[in-house]
Task: inverse folding
């Protein structure tokens, strides 16, 4: 996604039940590293975007929560 001139990589996580933790908790160090490597690969392949600033956002959706707190969009959720 583009936000102005910033390339935004977004991870969307959904959890139907909170038994194994919520959607946000499912993005651990291993998952973050995988996202960073994927972004690096994308930027190597799509060189027109390589000079733009980048950020990583997370959209966490928990079905068990009330409608008002179900969707949580975290801008700049982590750094590379």
Result:
């Amino acid at each position: 996604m583009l936000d102005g001139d910033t390339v935004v990589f977004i991870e969307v996580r959904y959890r139907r039940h909170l038994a194994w933790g919520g959607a946000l908790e499912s993005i651990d160090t291993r998952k973050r590293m995988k996202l960073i490597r994927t972004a690096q690969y994308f930027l190597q392949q799509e060189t027109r975007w390589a000079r733009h600033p980048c950020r990583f956002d997370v959209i966490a959706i928990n079905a068990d929560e009330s409608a008002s707190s179900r969707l949580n969009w975290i801008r700049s959720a982590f750094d590379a």
